[in-house]
């Protein structure tokens, strides 16, 4: 195929607004009225400080918003979407899921992909990315059939922070996370 232009995004031949798997994209799961009694899932990528950051968010949701429990799971590859078995476990065992930290281009894209996949399975998700990677997060949302997908941001970088700074960042982003998880679908 001389002079062919190849599309590295996987979007070639896909209908506009459809997800890469061919299914519909962009639908948000129904939101909860609040987080009291909610089972919170934490999908932790392997980026430095992601575990501590999300652990603190989970702790604050229990302490301040009455969440019933927190289930933390780690995905092995921060640059790839969560494996099917992990997505299934989180959508079965949790009422809401928080994922991140998107602290680089590929992990931001992967975190948004995970959020869109969770939403498509009916589980509200809050994705957290560092603000320097809004471009890659927004681009993958479009490619996943979810243009305008909303996520929370924290200042870049996260990986180099000390534990107290990580906890401070988690506390600062908490209102945005809550806003992404509760209220009418699409409200934040």
CATH class assignment = Alpha Beta
Total number of helical segments? 5
The Cα radius of gyration reads 16 Å
> Which spans of ≥5 residues are poorly predicted at pLDDT below 50?
5-24
Task: Give the number of DSSP strands.
Answer: 5
Mean pLDDT: 88
CATH architectural name = 3-Layer(aba) Sandwich
Major sheet strand order: 2-1-3-4-5
Report the portion of residues in β strands: 5-15%
Into which percent range does the helicity of residues fall? 25-40%
Report the span from N to C terminus.
47 Å
Q: Structural class of the secondary elements?
A: alpha/beta
Tally of individual domains: 1
Largest sheet: 5 strands, parallel
Return the CATH topology.
Rossmann fold
**What is the CATH superfamily?**
Glycerate kinase, domain 1
List SSEs in N-to-C order: EHEHEHEHEH
Per the principal axes of the C-alpha atoms, what is the gross shape?
globular
Brief overview:
The chain is an alpha/beta fold and 188 residues long. It is 38% helix and 15% strand.
Give your account of this protein's structure.
The protein has one domain (39-181): Glycerate kinase, domain 1 (Rossmann fold, 3-Layer(aba) Sandwich). It is built from five helices and five strands. It is 38% helix and 15% strand. The chain is an alpha/beta fold and 188 residues long. Strand 1 (39-44), helix 1 (50-65) and strand 2 (69-74) form a beta-alpha-beta unit.
Write the layout of secondary structure elements.
Elements: E1 39-44, H1 50-65, E2 69-74, H2 84-93, E3 96-102, H3 105-120, E4 125-130, H4 134-143, E5 152-154, H5 163-181
Parallel strand pairs: 1-2, 1-3, 3-4, 4-5
């Amino acid at each position: 195929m001389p002079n062919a232009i190849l599309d590295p995004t996987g979007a070639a031949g896909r209908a506009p607004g459809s997800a890469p798997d061919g299914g519909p994209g962009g639908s948000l799961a129904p939101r909860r009225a609040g987080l009291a009694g909610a089972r919170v899932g934490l999908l932790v990528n392997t980026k430095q400080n992601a575990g501590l950051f999300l652990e603190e968010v989970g702790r604050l949701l229990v302490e301040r918003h009455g969440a019933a429990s927190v289930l933390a799971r780690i995905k092995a590859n921060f640059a790839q979407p969560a494996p099917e078995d992990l997505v299934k476990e989180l959508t079965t065992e949790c009422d809401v899921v928080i994922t991140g930290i998107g602290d680089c281009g590929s992990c931001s894209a992967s975190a948004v992909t995970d959020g869109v996949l969770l939403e498509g399975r009916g589980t509200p998700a809050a994705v957290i990315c560092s603000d320097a990677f809004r471009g890659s997060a927004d681009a993958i949302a479009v490619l996943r059939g979810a243009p305008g997908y909303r996520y929370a941001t924290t200042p870049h970088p996260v990986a180099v922070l000390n534990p107290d700074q990580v906890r401070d960042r988690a506390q600062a982003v908490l209102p945005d996370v809550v806003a992404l998880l509760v209220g009418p679908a699409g409200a934040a």
